[in-house]
Recover the amino acids of this structure.
């Protein structure tokens, strides 16, 4: 039982995004707050567990030497400093509290990975990611199935198909971020059962991502596959590659002709609209938010406008464009919003957190030329980075917890006790 506790804690952290649907249903206006409350309970349980087994101090000493944990801690420090400029102190405390909750979960997930062991931890997380792909994809497809076949309606980009997250873009990116795991399983495995399951999950994940019609997520899919081909082109298995392509084409045909049958060529239309020169309300809004954030950064470059205070400043900057009391709560670019809220030093700490795994994994790949785990980190972190550029994953539990698990995976892959090339 003692050996099972770290695995149980890790599973609870990983599937915390389900807590709203399972326990609180529609009792909360924003599902992230019940999720954060649940994570806080797991953090307390983890603290008690590590204290009880007398490992808390030892693990704390180890964590002090970890640059990613240190970068997150520095990010928190500058969040605190930025409160000096906050106009809405209560909002700053709420957002800072959520970041602190995420930091503690980062710390305790890392501690759990030490107890489990780096190789077992990597395998366990890959299993969790695969299960998550199934849960998230089937939730989207089941909702779409209900609309088309039971309600005789049309699948539109509405909250009805958002799955377990706050909106369809978050859901789409959450699914796309995990697809590299399937690429890893398919191209490094010869086990027939694992391959069949992986191809099935690939079909479900592509179908759901395409049905959601998120341009950013589709762009992310294209980018991570382009990177994968560049890194693995010379050693790709022809048979597996052919089956992989057939699965993608099949998922496109099913998505377009079954779920989006009344909107012919809808997927291609969405992809072709990824162009700043094309008049599109969503693109125009984002570009306007970006320019407003840059303007704010120029005025407050050192400590920003205060953590969590962009939603207040956005009213000042966007008041002439607002209608129906719709307030732009986010810049729709985490990098710009972090810079605008907490200043340049906090921004650099956050940027370090996102780019270090990509850069170091790429360097490791260049040295080995065939390290699948490092390619996995590159692809997943690239997807998260693209998400950060178009959305606000830092504030959503399902996205932020995925980032934390990827970071802990990266730490374990690059431990002194290295995992062999797999």
């Amino acid at each position: 039982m003692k050996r099972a506790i770290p695995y149980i804690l890790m599973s609870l952290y990983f599937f915390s995004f389900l807590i709203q649907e399972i326990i609180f249903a529609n009792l909360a206006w924003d599902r992230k707050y019940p999720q954060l409350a649940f994570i806080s309970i797991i953090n307390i349980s983890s603290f008690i567990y590590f204290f009880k087994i007398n490992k808390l101090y030892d693990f704390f000493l180890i964590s002090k030497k970890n640059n990613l944990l240190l970068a997150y801690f520095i990010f928190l420090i500058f969040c605190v400093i930025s409160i000096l400029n906050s106009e809405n102190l209560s909002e700053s405390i709420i957002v800072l509290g959520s970041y602190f909750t995420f930091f503690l979960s980062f710390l305790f997930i890392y501690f759990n990975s030490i107890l489990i062991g780096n190789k077992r931890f990597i395998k366990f997380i890959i299993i969790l990611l695969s299960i998550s792909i199934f849960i998230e994809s089937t939730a989207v497809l089941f909702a779409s199935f209900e609309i088309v076949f039971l309600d005789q309606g049309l699948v539109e980009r509405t909250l009805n198909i958002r799955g377990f997250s706050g909106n369809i873009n978050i859901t789409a990116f959450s699914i796309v971020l995990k697809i590299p795991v399937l690429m890893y399983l398919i191209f490094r495995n010869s086990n027939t059962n694992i391959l069949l399951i992986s191809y099935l999950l690939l079909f479900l994940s592509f179908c759901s991502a395409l049905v959601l019609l998120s341009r950013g997520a589709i762009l992310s899919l294209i980018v991570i596959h382009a990177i994968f081909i560049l890194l693995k082109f010379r050693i790709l298995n022809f048979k597996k590659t052919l089956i992989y392509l057939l699965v993608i084409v099949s998922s496109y045909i099913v998505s377009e002709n079954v779920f989006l049958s009344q909107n012919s060529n809808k997927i291609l239309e969405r992809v072709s609209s990824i162009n700043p020169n094309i008049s599109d309300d969503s693109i125009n809004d984002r570009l306007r938010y970006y320019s407003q954030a840059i303007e704010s950064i120029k005025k407050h470059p050192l400590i920003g406008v205060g953590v969590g205070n962009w939603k207040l400043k956005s009213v000042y900057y966007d008041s002439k464009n607002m209608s129906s009391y719709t307030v732009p709560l986010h810049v729709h670019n985490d990098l710009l919003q972090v810079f605008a809220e907490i200043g340049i030093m906090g921004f650099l700490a956050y940027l370090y957190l996102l780019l270090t795994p990509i850069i170091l994994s790429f360097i490791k790949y260049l040295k080995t030329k065939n390290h699948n785990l490092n390619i996995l980190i590159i692809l997943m972190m690239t997807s998260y980075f693209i998400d950060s550029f178009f959305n606000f994953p830092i504030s959503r539990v399902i996205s932020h917890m995925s980032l934390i698990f990827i970071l802990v995976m990266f730490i374990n892959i690059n431990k002194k006790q290295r995992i062999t090339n797999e």
User: Anything to note?
Assistant: DSSP finds 17 helices and no strands in the chain. Confidence is low (pLDDT under 50) at residues 417-422. Residues 354 and 398 are 17 Å apart (CA to CA).
